[in-house]
Amino acid sequence: MSRYAMVIDLQRCVGCSSCSISCRTENNVSEGIYWSHKRTETVGTFPNVRFHYLPTLCNHCENAPCVRGCPTNAMHKLDNGITMHDSKKCIGCRYCMINCPYGVIHFNWKDPHSFWRGKEAVLKGGTSSPVEENRAVGGKIMPYYNPEREETFSGIRPKGVVEKCTFCDHRVKKGKLPRCVESCPADARIFGDLDDPKSDVNKLIGKFRPFRLKESLGTKPKVFYIRDFSSASYPKTKGGI
Amino acid sequence: MEKKKSRTLISDFLSNTGLSRRSFIKTTAITGAAVTLGSGMMPKMKALAQAAAPSSNGMGKWMPATCQGCTSWCSVQVYIIDGRAVKVRGNPHSKVNLGASCPRAHLGLQQIYDPDRLKVPMKRTNPKKGRNEDPKFVPISWDEALDTIADKIMDLRKNDETHKYMLMRGRYSYMRDILYDRMTKIIGSPNNISHSSLCAEAEKFGPYYTEGFWGYRQYDVTNANYILLWGADPLSANRQVSYYSKVWGDAVDRATIAIVEPRLSATATKADEWMPIKPGYDGALAVAIAHVLLTKGLWYKPFVGDFVDGQNHFILGQTVDEESFEEIHTHGIVKWWNSELKDKTPEWAAKLTGLDVDQIERVATDYGNAAPHAISWVGGGPVMQVRGGYSSMATHALNGLVGAVDNKGGTQQTNKEYTSKFPKPDDFLDDIAKNGKKHGKIDHRGRLHFPCLNSGKSGGGVITNNAAEGILNEDPNEIKVAIAYMNNFSFSAPQSERWERALSKIPFLVHMTTNASEFSWFSDIILPDTHHMFEKWGYVKAHANGYRHVTLMQPIVKQTYDYKTDETEIPWLIAEKLAKRGFDNLLSHFKEYKDPETGKAPENEKEFALYSLKHATQNLWDPAKYKGGDKIKGWEEFIKIGVWNSDPYPIRKKWSNMKTKTKKFEFYSETLKEALGKHAEKHGVTIDEVMKATNYLARGEMAFVPHFEEPFILGDEKEYPFVHVDHKSRLNREGRSANCTWYYDFKDIDPGDEAWDDVAKINPIDAKPLGIKSGDPIKLSSVTGSLSCTAKLWEGVRPGTIAKCFGQGHWAYGQLASKEFGKTPRGGSSNDIIPAQYEALSGASAYYGLTRLKIEKI
User: Fold this and answer.
1) Residue B511 and which of A14, A193, B274, B729 are 20 to 30 A apart at CA?
2) What is the CATH number of the domain that holds B463?
3) What's the CATH code of the domain at B850?
4) Quick check: is A83 in a domain?
5) Interface test mutation site (partner A, options B10, B36, B37, B125, max chain A beta carbons within 10 A)
6) How many CB pairs under 8 A join A and B?
7) Based on the number of CB atoms within 10 Å of its own CB, is B697 exposed (0-12), middle (13-18) or buried (19 or more)?
8) Residue A191 forms part of a structural domain
C-alpha cells in the first residue's frame, strides 16, 4: 500500500497561486473556500524588506486531529494515507476545523458558488444572468463544472458541511498527479509514495532537511517543505558593534 | 462578496503556538457531545451529491489553444467535456512555455462563460452619447447590424470621404491584417489605429537604436550569471511569464538577480538585490553602472575591443582619444564615455536615485564580473516615460558593454518562423480608395513633435492615445464611421476621459467585443465577439527559451451563442453586404484566400476564417513547403498539436552583422542620428529643434548617445507630494479580469495587495503623518483626474511614492467589474490619474515616473 506525500520546493515556488486556481477548476471549489491556499508575510522595514509566500493545503497528517475529533467518521483516513471526507456523513459540527492546527478545513456557511446563483442580466435581452448562462452552457451550478470530481466525492459540497483538499484522490486513484502538482508552472510540487524508497519525494526528503508545519504538535504532516522562498545572497559581514 | 482576509502569518505556522499534542487527545474524548451539538446542522444533500460512474481515463479531452491573457502568448490545452471547457494547462508541445501555464490562463474559463458577455448584436436607441447617457441598447439581428454597417460605409464611398472611416484594434491575432490592413485599405482609409503604443514601444526603442532590433528580446536566464532587471517583473507580467516561472528556481541557483523598481514586485521577492529607485532616475543608474564597468576595466573585450596599448584610460573625469581604442563589434564607446559617462560616478547616481552608493557599486561590479553572461533586462517602467527613450538605450546598452547581446546567457532576438502574408490588396483599390488613403492619419504620427521612429522611419509607429485628440479636433479630418475590436481605450488609455468625449463625437461607432465595456457605452452597434482562447481560428507568434513558437487558436468548444470572429468572419460578412450594394472589391479580394489543400475559394465566413489560417501557416504544416523547425505531417496533425516550434536560436550570428547603420552595436547611434536627421529634414528644422519639440533636454551630439535626462514629472511637489507608481497584476488578463471572481479571491498574490479590494500601497512613514490607516477609503488625485480606492500601509513601497495596480475601476464591463453597471466603478482605474503624455520618439504613452499625486481620506 502507498503512503502519499508531497514535497513543496519553496525556491522553485514563484508565489503565483496557479495551484489554488487550478484546484478550483478540478474540485469545483467555491469562492471564499481554499483547498489549496497560502500564507504571506511582508517582513522588514524599507528598504530592507521582503515578501514571503508559503503554499498550504491539507497536510494529510498521519496523526490527524481532524479525524480523531470527528464524531461521525465523516473525516477519515484512507489506506493510502489520504485524509478523506464524506460529505454525506458530515453533520457540520466543525470539530475538525477546531482541531486542525493549520486552518485548511473550510465550512460552507452559505450555498456555494453564490455568483452563479445570480438572476440579474446587465443588458436586457443582450446578456444573460449567471443562472441562464450556466443553463445555456449545460454545466452544473457553474458552467465550467468538473463532473470527474463526483467519482469519489460530492461534486459540489452543499451549505452546512465542511470541505478540504483530498490530495485529488480521484486522480491519484487513476495514476494521475494531484491537479496542483500537474498545474504548477514552476514544478515546485513533487508528489509520491513514502513507502517507495526510490520515489522522488524520498530522494528530496533525504537530500534536504525538510520541515513540516507545527511539527512538534505530533501531527506528522505529509506535506514537506524544502529550501527557501527567498534564497537571496548577501554581502559577507560579521556585523559590528 | 465579502472580504476574505487571512491574517495568520508564516511565522505563526512555523512556531508551535495554540494547541499542544495533549489538547488533541482531549478533543477526541468529547465526540459524544459533538454528535448532540452537531445534529441540528444536517446538510441538505439532494441533487448535488452523487452521479457519474467512475471512468478510467477521464470524461474529456485536452484540446490545444492559445492564451492571450497577456502578450506572453503561451500555448495551452483546454480540457473539454461534452463541448464545455473545464480546465486549462500549458501545452507540453511548446518549446517556448514548456507545458507551463501561469495563473492567468485559468481565468479564461471565467471569461468564456461570463454571463455578462454579449450574446446578440445590439443597437443604441438613445441618440445622445456620454458617460451619463444610458445607451439604451436593444437586441438586433446580425443581418440588421451588418446592413447598417454596410450602408454607412457605402455613404462614405459615395461622398468620396472614405478617409473618414477608422479602424481601431485592440487584442489581435495575426489574422489581424484582414480587418486592420486589407479592409481599411480597400474601403480607402489611412486610419487603422492599433493599440501598440499603449503597450511598450519605448521598450523597443533602446534595442533598435543600439542593435537594430525593434521587438521584444528573449533572455537566456538559465545560462546567465547575473540578471539585472529594470522595472521588468517576469514572474508576474509580460512577457513569457509561464516560461520564466518554470525556470526561475534554476536561474536563482546560478545567477545573482538584481531588480530596479520602486515597488517590491513579485520578481523582487525572490531577488538578491532590490534597488528601490526613485521613479524616473533609471537612466542615471544605468550610466553610473556603465561608468563603473569602464573605469574598473570590466567591459567584455572580445565584443567591445580594448585600448591599443592595453592600458585602461577610462579614468574619472578624463576624456579619451578616440584613436586610442580599437572596437570590435561595437561603435562609439569612446564618444559615449567622453560625452556622457566620464563623470557619472556611483556617488553622483546615489544622490539622484535615492539608492545606496555601496549597492550601486556592488551591483555594477558583480554585473561586470559576470560578463558576458550578464543580462540587462529592459522593462516598461524605466522607459514608458516622457524622457524614457534614452533610458531605454542606456539600460539596454549595458548588454553591449558586457557582450551579452545575441549571446549565451544574454539577450537574444527572435528565431526565424515561416508564416506567410495574406494576398496583396493592391489590385482591389479603386480610385476612391486610393484618394482616401492619401489623407493624413488621425493620430498625427510623424508630425514634428511626434516622430514615432518605429524602425528608423519618421511616423513609422502609431501614437494611439493621441488619436483621441485627432478625433476631437477633427484634425486632419472628422471621423464619421469607426469600427473597433477588442479594445477599450476609454479604460485602457491614460486620461481616459478624453476618449469618452472623442467617442461621443463619432456619429457611427461599431464595437466588436465580448463584454459591453466602457468603449461599448459610446457605440451605436455592439457585436458579440468570439473568445480568442476557445472560439476562433487564428495564430500568434512568441519566443523564449531560445525558440519561437507559432501557436493556434481554434474553435474547440460548443459555442453558446451566435458570436462571430472579429478578424475574419465579420469582415467577410461586411464584404458580402458591400457586394450586394454594388461594391464587391473586398469580397473579390477575400475570395483569393484559397484552401491550400483543395484550391477552393471560400464561400462563406466560416470557410474564409479557416482557409485564411491554413494559407498563412501552410509552410509550417505542409511537408512539401517545409522550411525549418518542427516537421509536421499535415494540417490535421497541426491542429491536433496546436503549435509549431522553430529551430533553436543561433547565438552570435549578429555580431558585426546587426541591422544598424554601422552593423555594429552602437553606443553612439548612427542609426538614430540618421532617423532624427530625416525627421528634422522632413520638417525643415534642426535635430535640436526636434529634441525641443519632443520634450527632451539633449542638444547636439547628446541626442545620439544613451544618457540620463531629468525626468518630466507633472504636478507641483507641494500640492502633490507623492510620485505615482503604476503596475500590473499577475492575474490581469490585460484589463479584462475584473469580471472574474477568481481575480478578487486571489488578488493578494500581488505582493502588498488585498483580496476583494483595490488598494493604493503607501509607505507607513508617509501615511502616519496624514493619519491614514490600512483600510481607509481614500482619493488619489493628479493634475488631470482622481480615483477612489483603499489605503494599504506597506513597507514594500518606496517612501514618497504610491503604488497602485492597474486592472480595477471599471464602471461597465460586467456586474462584478463595476459596482453598478454603467454608473459606479469598483475600485479605481489608474488611467483616471495618469495624464496623456508621450515618449514621442517611439510614440509610446507614458505611464511611469510621470505624475505626482495627493491623497485625501474620504
Assistant:
1) B729
2) 3.40.50.740
3) 2.40.40.20
4) yes
5) B10
6) 341
7) middle
8) yes
Q: How far is CA A185 from the centre of its chain?
A: 16
Pairing type for strands B325-327 and B305-307 reads antiparallel
- Asked if A24 and A163 count as a contact pair (C-beta separation under 8 A), the reply is no
Please name the amino acid found at residue B318. Q
* B51/A121 touch (CB, cutoff 8 Å), yes or no: no
Q: Look at residue B177 and tell me whether its pLDDT is greater than 70.
A: yes
Asked whether the beta carbons of residue A32 and residue B1 sit closer than 8 angstroms, the reply is yes
| B67 part of a folded domain | no
Same domain for B389 and B434, yes or no, is no
Residue A130, C-alpha cell as written in the block: 449567471
Question: What chain A residue is nearest to B51 in terms of C-alpha separation?
Answer: A150
Phi (first) and psi of residue B179, to 5 degrees: -85, -45
User: Would you say residue B48 lies in a domain?
Assistant: no
Pairing of strands B84-90, A75-77: unpaired
Cβ burial B780-789 (10 Å sphere, 16+ → b, else e): bbbebbebbb
Residues, chain A? 241
Model pLDDT, residue B7: 59
Rounded distance between C-alpha atoms, residue B4 and residue B808, angstroms: 18
Query: What is the total count of domains within chain B?
Result: 4
The interface predicted TM-score of the complex, written ipTM, equals: 0.97
pTM beyond cutoff 0.90:
yes
Gap from A117 CA to chain B (nearest CA, Å): 11
pLDDT band at B620 (very low <50, low <70, confident <90, very high): very high
* Cβ within 8 Å, pair A146-B87: yes
Name the percent of chain B lying above pLDDT 90. 92
Predicted confidence band of residue B604 (pLDDT cuts 50, 70, 90): very high
Q: Which of A223-237, B55-69, B251-265, B637-651 has the lowest mean pLDDT?
A: B55-69
Spatial separation of the C-alpha atoms in residues B728 and B71, rounded to whole Å? 13
Please tell me the distance from the alpha carbon of residue A134 to that of residue A129, in angstroms, as a whole number: 9
- Do both B450 and B586 map to the same domain? yes
> What is the per-residue pLDDT across B775-822, written as a single tens digit (0 to 9) for each?
999 999 999 999 999 999 999 999 999 999 999 999 999 999 999 999
Using the Cβ of B224 and the Cβ atoms of chain A, whether some distance falls under 8 Å is answered with no
| pLDDT, tens digit, 9 for 90 and up, residues B569-595 | 999 999 999 999 999 999 999 999 999
Which residues on adjacent β-strands are paired with residue B306?
Answer: B326
- Residue B49 resides in a domain: no
- Structural domain that includes position A30: 4-112+149-226
In this complex, do A174 and B57 lie within 8 Å of one another by their Cβ atoms? yes
Q: Is A173 domain-assigned?
A: yes
Which residues, including other chains, have CB under 8 Å from residue A212's CB and lie 6 or more apart? A59, A220, A221, A223, A224, A225
Nearest to A68 among B2, B11, B24 (CB): B24
Give how many domains chain A has, as a whole number.
1
Q: What share of chain B is helix, strand, coil (3-state, %, to 5)?
A: 35, 20, 50
Whether residue B299 lies within 8 A of chain A, CB to CB, comes out as no
Instruction: Name the B residues in 40-99 with CB < 8 Å from any A CB.
Output: 41-46, 48-60, 81-90
Cα–Cα dist B415/B628, whole Å:
11
How far does the CA of residue A197 sit from the closest CA of chain B (Å)?
Answer: 25
Whether residue B162 is found in the same domain as residue B232: no
Give the CA distances from residue B769 to residues B263, B796, B856, in Å, rounded to whole numbers and listed in that order: 21, 18, 12
Residue-range definition of the domain harbouring residue B172: 122-199+418-529+564-591+599-641
Q: Residue A182 belongs to a domain with what CATH number? A: 3.30.70.20
Supply angle C-alpha B126, B128, B132, rounded to 5.
95
pLDDT score at B15:
60
Q: Who among B89, B115, B269 is closest to A50 (CB)?
A: B269
Residue B630 CB coordination number (10 Å): 19
Establish if A231 belongs to a structural domain. no
Judge: A126–B122 Cβ closer than 8 Å, yes or no.
Answer: yes
Confidence of residue B8 (pLDDT cuts 50, 70, 90): low
